[in-house]
Design brief:
Layout (H helix, E strand, L loop, with lengths): L1 H13 L50 H7 L5 H17 L1 H6 L1 H9 L7 H12 L1
Helix pairs in contact: 2-3, 3-6
Length: about 130
């Protein structure tokens, strides 16, 4: 008999009504989900799109010579090809500035002579031909 009375007592605990106290808030359900969240802002240092380049010499795509030379070391072949095209555009717009930085330009473009992508090499030949 003692066993059955314990089982009945445990069953009674599960379905026991919780009495509300005066001035107290209703307790959340045992299976309630917390849906609160916090939002944070993402801070990006400097993007080349938003930077003001009005005082610098740029090509028609608003890239400076320094950016074009950096893109020549990029891992993506289309990006390297676009940098060579941009360098040709920069040379057409600002030939004096290109002559001033000729050493850096040649050292950056020499690496592309033996590039694995034929499109990059072809574009470099067009640049050297102009």
């Amino acid at each position: 008999m003692p066993r059955s009375s314990k089982k009945k007592q445990k069953k009674a605990e599960d379905f026991k009504k919780v009495k509300l106290k005066v001035g107290k808030k209703k307790a959340p359900a045992a299976n309630a989900t917390d849906t609160s969240f916090t939002a944070r802002a993402i801070v990006v240092g400097v993007q080349s799109i938003s930077a003001d380049k009005s005082a610098q010499l740029t090509n028609s795509h608003n890239h400076t010579l320094k950016e074009l030379l950096a893109q020549m070391r990029h891992y993506s072949a289309p990006t390297r090809k676009d940098s060579v095209v941009g360098l040709g555009d920069f040379a057409a717009l600002h030939p004096a500035a290109l002559r001033a930085e000729l050493g850096a330009v040649i050292s950056a473009t020499v690496r592309l002579v033996v590039d694995s992508e034929p499109g990059v090499r072809r574009q470099l030949l067009r640049l050297y031909g102009t």
